[in-house]
Specification:
574 residues, three-stranded antiparallel β-sheet, two-stranded antiparallel sheet, 48% helix
């Protein structure tokens, strides 16, 4: 009976995203002197973002047309920032520490802690692994790329997205020595010899066309680093962007045609037999003349030489090369006007659930999808370049802007989909499968003594089941939409029940507390905020916690926690 009543309570809590939480007690104390020093140029960048965003809230007459939502509470901020930066909700002890910091600088101090934590490294290595290889493919190769991203890139105090792009596009070596090679190796496309299990190009064909058609990596590289979706120009000129022709796709493709893979990928991995290492290198004898033929819709075949999107070319015989073709391509990519702006927009999409374009996709630039916040994107691109392409710096700017700190509550001026691009409120986002798994662990705090390999296997198995039910393996990075099926899996899954009941976890700690303290501990753990007075009274009345036996009270606390972990407020990033 208690369980059914609390299910109703859980549904009510799912509608409580905009509820006002109790004020932090730390705010009522005298503010301590802050020793926090913002990163250089942070204040200037934030001011620019704030001014440019708010200027779009007025019409030409200076009248306000978009009224911003209220500023989010500290509880909402730590939960939102933690999910976006380290991939999970905050823990109770992290909330306590956050609220003890001076009110004027606590949000900036939190961002600094988050981007400096090992979980930042792990989370962004995971995000980039999916951006580069999607969720499909062999786990071993994804793990190798993830490890490389962790050790060589995101663990560095000062990191450059430009360096990351260059290393990925020019990577050579073995998969087990240099995980970066797995990006290109996972997207080689078909053999130039055609289809068939044992089809291998002849030496003559290798010299003429190369080993693989390199179609997937061509479109993915341009989309990832420049935000242009040119995949359709493989077969025809772009229907909406007059400047994008077939010759541009195949011109970029020609930069990849001297890529060589040494080693074979097994058609079917045998149980217990690990995949062998592959080697990625460049072979100057492949596609020697630098010409790739493509077919027009009228059946005519035309040649294309290595040529970048802006028309920059290499000599047909390779005489202008100062390095490999891929090294030259990396220079063209990172020197393009859209390189910085594309990454800024991609990151903006991560933190706001949409880019600055008319359509939500953050990696789809072109005449068909004009940039609404054009001045802001141009300026942020300039600032990001001046900041040496440091992603942590960009994160600080975005998360400390006024727009990011608004509540996810609409009003009559901004409640339509077309209003979202003006960022006068925060958007609701469903957790990704990875965020959900890690947030469940953060909330329940199971005290299971597992080694790293066991934990990784548990995580991989859980995510595989979840993404099979709800994930998108079409290359849409980490987008994820919750469904009724998801809710049923959460409510009835053995993973959730096992985590809730784990010895020494959050529930055990709550059972050691009494009354409001016990309920608030569960609210803080699951929703990162204390219960409001109304919620507390509703839960207490539904669970009938007053004057019952200890065993019944413990069962009621279990049901409260279960309901909190299954409500919309837990599943959503808001």
């Amino acid at each position: 009976m208690i369980h059914k009543m609390l299910l109703v309570a859980g549904v009510m809590l799912g509608l409580a995203v905009s509820a006002q939480a109790q004020a932090p007690k730390a705010d009522s104390k005298p503010e301590a002197k802050s020793q926090f020093t913002p990163a250089p140029n942070t204040d200037e960048a934030i001011k620019i973002i704030n001014e440019m965003i708010s200027s779009k809230w007025k019409n030409e007459k200076g009248e306000v047309t978009y009224y911003p939502a209220e500023k989010c509470t500290d509880y909402e901020f730590i939960r939102r920032a933690s999910l976006d930066i380290i991939g999970r909700i905050a823990k109770v002890e992290e909330i306590d520490r956050f609220l003890k910091d001076p009110a004027s600088t606590r949000r900036a101090m939190l961002i600094d802690r988050l981007v400096s934590s090992p979980e930042y490294t792990q989370n962004w290595s995971t995000i980039w692994t999916f951006w580069l290889m999607t969720r499909t493919g062999d786990r071993l190769y994804k793990d190798q790329l993830h490890l490389w991203l962790e050790e060589e890139m995101f663990s560095q105090d000062v990191m450059s997205i430009k360096d990351l792009a260059i290393k990925l596009v020019t990577a050579t070596g073995k998969t087990n020595d240099n995980g970066a090679v797995n990006f290109i190796l996972s997207q080689l496309g078909g053999s130039t010899a055609g289809t068939g299990r044992n089809m291998r190009p002849t030496q003559q064909l290798l010299e003429k066309e190369g080993q693989f058609d390199m179609v997937p990596v061509t479109s993915r590289t341009v989309r990832l680093f420049l935000g242009y979706q040119i995949q359709c120009t493989q077969c025809h000129d772009h229907p909406f962007n007059a400047d994008w022709k077939q010759k541009h796709f195949w011109g970029v493709n020609a930069f990849f045609r001297q890529t060589e893979r040494i080693g074979e990928v097994a058609m079917q991995k045998k149980k217990g037999m690990p995949m062998g290492p592959l080697t990625l290198t460049d072979n100057a004898t492949y596609n020697k003349k630098g010409v790739v033929y493509y077919e027009k819709r009228n059946g005519v075949f035309l040649p294309s030489e290595p040529m970048f999107l802006d028309g920059s070319k290499l000599g047909k015989d390779g005489s202008q090369l100062q390095g490999s073709r891929r090294e030259e391509l990396a220079k063209f990519l990172t020197g393009h006007k859209n390189f910085s702006k594309s990454y800024v927009n991609r990151m903006w999409g991560h933190f706001f659930s949409r880019g600055m374009n008319e359509k939500p996709a953050a990696d789809d630039f072109g005449e068909h999808n004009p940039v609404i916040q054009e001045d802001l994107l141009d300026k942020m691109g300039e600032l990001f370049t001046a900041a040496s392409y440091n992603p942590k710096t960009l994160i600080r700017w975005i998360c400390l802007s006024d727009a990011y700190q608004l509540k996810a509550v609409t009003n009559k001026s901004n409640d339509k989909p077309e209003d979202e691009v003006y960022f006068s409120r925060q958007m609701l986002k469903a957790m990704s499968p990875e965020q959900m798994f890690d947030s469940l662990l953060a909330a329940t705090q199971p005290n299971a003594k597992r080694n790293d390999d066991e934990q990784k296997k548990l995580r991989a198995d859980w995510l595989r089941r979840l993404t099979q039910n709800f994930g998108d393996d079409e290359g849409n990075e980490v987008t994820f939409n919750g469904t009724v099926v998801q809710a049923l899996l959460m409510m009835n899954g053995r993973d959730l029940n096992g985590a809730i009941g784990a010895a020494g976890g959050t529930l055990d700690k709550a059972k050691a507390l009494k009354g409001p303290a016990a309920v608030n501990h569960l609210f803080l753990a699951a929703l990162n905020r204390p219960a409001t007075t109304k919620e507390y009274n509703q839960v207490m009345a539904a669970a009938q916690l007053k004057g019952v036996r200890e065993t019944d009270a413990n069962a009621a606390l279990t049901d409260i926690f279960w309901a909190l972990l299954n409500c919309n407020e837990f599943i959503l990033n808001h």
